[in-house]
Design brief:
The complex is a heterotrimer.
Chain A: H1 4-7, H2 20-29, H3 32-49, H4 51-54, H5 87-123, H6 125-139, H7 143-154, H8 158-185, H9 188-195, H10 200-237, H11 248-254, H12 263-290
Chain B: H1 2-38, H2 54-64, H3 70-82, H4 96-131, H5 136-150, H6 153-167, H7 188-222, H8 224-231, H9 236-264, H10 267-273, H11 278-287, H12 291-319, H13 322-325
Chain C: E1 7-19, E2 26-40, E3 45-49, H1 56-63, E4 71-76, E5 79-80, H2 87-93, E6 94-97, H3 111-121, H4 126-139, H5 144-147, H6 157-169, E7 175-179, H7 187-204, E8 207-211, H8 215-221, E9 224-229, E10 232-238, H9 239-244, H10 249-256, E11 307-308, E12 315-316
Parallel strand pairs in C: 3-8, 3-9, 6-7, 7-8
Antiparallel strand pairs in C: 1-2, 1-4, 4-5, 9-10, 10-12, 11-12
The chains are: A mainly alpha, B mainly alpha, C alpha/beta.
């Protein structure tokens, strides 16, 4: 209970409260739904990383004599596709491209959109007007339409798909970033920091980012599920990943005609998209309430 | 007195919103136009014979106006589009406008029906969930709404086809009428074709509207004067009416926007069901690299979305004057 | 006799354009602060009082350029801002404490981080700044061991405001602007914080600008008082002089509306009726004339300027006090032997 140390110019050892993020993690761990969703996502990511070791067969090896085998075929527990390739192996390998195509655009859009939105929100004035009116134009397109228009114009391919989807998710993230930043900017502690003579960069780093990135991040995690569905949707239309790569949306596309022969095999890739998408949605919801952010 | 003062305000707001929409529309047109020029490859590839001479190529390019500078091309395209002329389809040589309107009608029918189904089911789930907050009914309804927004709807369409067309044989799997007949009629043979795509499409707005309504209802019920109403003995019926009155404007606004999203995003479902709408047309335009058709379709869908947004905003403001201020 | 004032404000003006109308044209101008001038001496406390919306807080923010002024000069210690005084230096020397203790502290920073932020951006090492933060915590009556590692939401309003004071003091400022700094606190806590402020002022030789709507608190804290009405100075003078002989009818009304601690001093005059007029289009002439019971035709036409009264350093902007102004209550013009 002594304060003498401070008089010597040395910081006293102090009692520290757990930080904000420690609290978020604690609350998240008490949320069973979010934890199950997280576990599923971790398993999917592990499957994607270790696909060559986990998959029982070569996902590319086709065979004309064992096409469209039903679920439960010995050696092919989830059957085979229209070219006789092992469904289980393709679904496991499919996690790689499907997750990459679904998560990367949101990741890219999170950085670009946050940058645009925070800049517009912090600087205000004309910069804000120019940036946000441009964003508004892209926001005026329904997201699916914009994604398809862009990747339709650019042509199929992984990179074009990623680019189109990133462009689609930048406007909503930039809008959220702008509105939170504008709100934070008006709070007294930012005023106080400005009155301290700190540079704009320092204020943004210390006082703005810490308070706006959380809400923007949560919003972005909510977009992952949409992005996954859209990314697989592009491949489903023949616009994203090209054959013969295993990707869930593309697999749904190539198996479409098989619904009359092996309907449940044909539906499997969609189950994977669904599980992944709902897991991200539930995790995002859990994160939102753990971070105490109003919808 | 207040109403008389409010009217010029509302008129000014209306005018302001309409005027502010114009630059957005211009920007949207510019993006649609630019799409063709970010596209790699020759836009004429689909009409030119593989052994076309440079001279022939030049003639055809001049025919479509592709030899002019971009700003001039844009202005020409825009002024024509303004009077409903979107040029000629490169693939079919038919006017783009006619193709779009036919397809647009089909998509609108599908999207409106899907929005209505989604709104009715979503409101029901949302209301029940919000009213019995944190009960098992709430958890179930919330799960249904999360499922609605998480399910890849094109896959759901496939599953419904598998169950109701392939396995049970109750409903047709594809098309908008028997034997690919073009003319739509409101009879059972045609309506049967509408059921599966409309139900599939309704899943997304259902999930979103259920979420919105649940939050609204829970919020309204947590306000103090509701307990006052209950205390006064104005039990369930009065409370119910109050909740509906207060939640309706927002729920309807969400519904309006969802209609726009469905119209713009119909391509996936139309592909699954071979439904002859704008989405189907868009797919056709993309794979045949039919740029006038692509531009025209996207422009019509995007402008419709902008106008829909405007209508939703204005009706919101008319219902709730506080919106004007924000 | 008096040394040069520490802070001199001259002709400070800020009008806000109101957006509205059909295409976002300007729909009017709020004259938030309209050409005010005053001085603050080293070591004194200047109280600024007035109803909400009179421009008190805007004035404070204009002084440290948190809001850009339209015109006016700010001089600190004889140096002029923008001429031989940099904004950075002014901001270091003039610090603010805001009313909302919670909004003034970044929720993601611990108490010591919040206090150390200012010194670190001004070139002090994190280690030294932290040591300084602990030292200041002791000064504001918070034990570092218990409070340095806490987050704002774990503190009470009074504790947070103590942290805000420490945060301001970390710059070693000459002037501290206290913008309604104790207004949101409970009465007992308020008294403790006021005593702390008095102690700190004595110990560190600070100068305060104390903004409040609470006239009892201002009387306790201030050496001189400035009364503001709709962006203008209505009256300014030493605290005893203002409270004993308020000259502007607005000051009189404010003081008579003040809840007295003394049961013998009952409210005699009618308190102010109605809200202040809209500052968007302030009335012409004396801005107070619409609510003033002494108002004549003159008051609605001519704007009175600040006039030095008999008491030293006591000025008021009222026609009734200006000799020869034409107001029936005004003293006669002093005939000078010309």
């Amino acid at each position: 209970m002594s304060v003498t140390a401070s008089a010597l110019g040395r910081p006293t050892p102090v009692e520290r409260s757990p930080g904000y993020w420690a609290g978020v993690v604690r609350r998240l761990r008490r949320d069973p739904v979010a934890m199950v969703a997280l576990a599923i996502i971790v398993v999917l990511v592990l499957l994607a990383i270790f696909a060559p070791w986990v998959a029982p067969n070569d996902p590319y090896r086709s065979s004309m004599i064992r096409r469209l085998r039903p679920i439960g075929t010995p050696g092919f527990p989830l059957g085979t596709d229209e070219l006789g390739r092992d469904m289980l192996s393709r679904l496991i390998f499919g996690a790689r491209l499907s997750l990459l195509m679904g998560v990367t655009p949101v990741f890219v859009a999170f950085f670009v959109g946050s940058f645009i939105g925070i800049t517009a929100g912090y600087l205000g004035g004309k910069v804000n007007t120019v940036l946000m009116r441009t964003i508004d134009v892209f926001f005026a397109f329904p997201s699916v339409l914009l994604a398809i228009a862009l990747s339709g114009a650019l042509g199929a391919g992984i990179f074009n798909g990623l680019l189109s989807l990133s462009i689609v998710f930048i406007p909503p993230i930039a809008r959220i970033a702008e509105s939170v930043t504008t709100a934070v900017r008006k709070i007294d502690y930012v005023e106080a920091a400005r009155a301290s003579g700190a540079s704009a960069m320092t204020i943004i780093r210390v006082h703005v980012l810490g308070n706006v990135l959380g809400p923007i991040f949560v919003y972005a995690t909510g977009l992952i599920s949409v992005s996954l569905i859209l990314a697989s949707g592009l491949s489903f239309l023949g616009l994203g990943v090209k054959p013969p790569e295993p990707e869930w949306g593309l697999m749904l596309n190539t198996l479409r005609n098989a619904i009359y022969v092996q309907p449940w095999v044909a539906a499997l890739p969609g189950v994977m998209i669904f599980i992944t998408s709902i897991s991200f949605n539930l995790l995002s919801d859990g994160l939102r309430s753990a971070m105490d952010i109003k919808a | 007195m207040a109403a008389r003062e409010g009217r010029p305000d509302m008129l000014a707001y209306l005018l302001r919103r309409v005027v502010l929409t114009l630059p957005i529309m211009l920007g949207v047109s510019l993006v649609c136009f630019a799409l063709v020029h970010v596209a790699p490859g020759d836009p004429l590839i689909s009409v030119l014979p593989p052994d076309a001479t440079a001279e022939l190529r030049g003639q055809i390019a001049a025919m479509y106006g592709f030899d002019r500078p971009y700003p001039e091309q844009f202005l020409r395209w825009l002024t024509r589009a303004a009077v409903g002329d979107f040029g000629t389809s490169i693939a079919t040589s038919r006017p783009v406008a006619g193709e779009i309107w036919k397809a647009f009608g089909n998509t609108l029918m599908l999207a409106v029906l899907a929005t209505i189904i989604g709104f009715v089911l979503g409101s029901l789930f949302g209301f029940v969930a919000g009213y019995f907050r944190d009960s098992w009914i709430d958890k179930l309804a919330s799960f249904v709404s999360v499922t609605g927004v998480s399910v890849p709807h094109y896959w759901l369409g496939m599953v419904l086809v598998i169950v109701f067309s392939v396995q049970l044989g109750w409903l047709p799997a594809t098309g908008a009428g028997p034997g690919g007949s073009a003319a739509w009629q409101w009879d059972w043979t045609h309506v049967r074709h509408l059921i599966l795509p409309a139900v599939t499409m309704s899943v997304i707005p259902m999930g979103i509207i259920a979420r919105t309504v649940r939050a609204l209802v829970a919020d309204i019920l947590s306000q103090e004067f509701i307990s006052g109403l209950k205390a006064k003995g104005l039990m369930e019926r009065g409370v119910f009416r109050h909740v509906v009155k207060n939640a309706a404007p927002t729920a309807l606004a969400v519904m309006g926007l969802q209609l726009g999203y469905l119209l713009g995003g119909s391509i996936l479902i139309e592909t699954v069901f071979s439904w002859p709408g704008t989405g189907f047309l868009l797919g056709q335009a993309i794979f045949q690299r039919d740029m006038p058709l692509l531009q025209g379709t996207i422009l019509v869908l995007a402008l419709f979305f902008v106008v829909l947004n405007l209508i939703v905003d204005l009706s919101q403001a008319a219902l709730d004057p506080r919106v004007q201020r924000s | 006799m008096t040394p040069a004032p520490l802070l001199e404000i001259a002709g400070l003006t800020r009008h806000f354009k109101l957006k509205g109308g059909l295409f976002g044209r300007s729909a009017g101008v709020v004259r938030a602060v309209d050409g005010i001038s005053f001085e603050v001496d080293e070591g004194e406390t200047l109280g600024i009082v007035g109803e909400s919306g009179c421009g008190k807080s805007t004035t404070a923010r204009l002084i440290v350029d948190l809001i850009a002024a339209d015109s006016g000069t700010i001089r600190l210690g004889g140096r002029t801002l923008g001429v031989d005084l940099e904004l950075r230096e002014l901001r270091r020397q003039v610090q603010m404490v805001f009313q909302d203790s919670y909004a003034s502290l970044n929720p993601r920073l611990t108490v010591e981080e919040a206090i150390a932020f200012g010194p670190t951006v001004n070139g002090v090492s994190v280690r030294e700044a932290t040591a300084l933060a602990h030292e200041l915590l002791v000064k504001v009556g918070l034990e570092p061991k218990r409070f340095a590692g806490r987050y704002p939401h774990e503190l009470s309003g009074g504790q947070r405001q103590r942290v805000n004071i420490a945060r301001a003091l970390a710059f070693r400022p000459k002037v501290v602007i206290l913008d309604e700094a104790v207004s949101a606190l409970d009465k007992s806590v308020e008294a403790q914080v006021l005593n702390l402020l008095s102690d700190l002022k004595r110990e560190l030789g600070l100068t305060y600008i104390f903004i409040s709507h609470d006239l009892n608190v201002v009387r306790y804290m201030a050496d001189r008082v400035m009364v503001m009405y709709l962006g203008e100075v209505a009256e300014i003078g030493p605290v005893e002089s203002i409270y004993a002989r308020p000259t502007h009818p607005y000051t009189q009304a404010l003081l008579s509306a003040m809840p007295s601690m003394d049961p013998d001093q009952l409210t005699r005059e009618a308190p102010l009726a109605g809200d202040p007029p809209n500052p968007i289009n302030p009335p012409p002439g004396c801005r107070f004339h619409t609510r003033c019971r002494y108002a004549t035709e003159l008051c609605g036409k001519t704007t009175p300027s600040l006039f030095a009264l008999a008491a030293p350093r006591h000025l008021a902007a009222c026609h009734r006090a200006i000799p020869g102004s034409g107001h029936p209550d005004a003293p006669r013009r002093l005939e000078t032997a010309a």
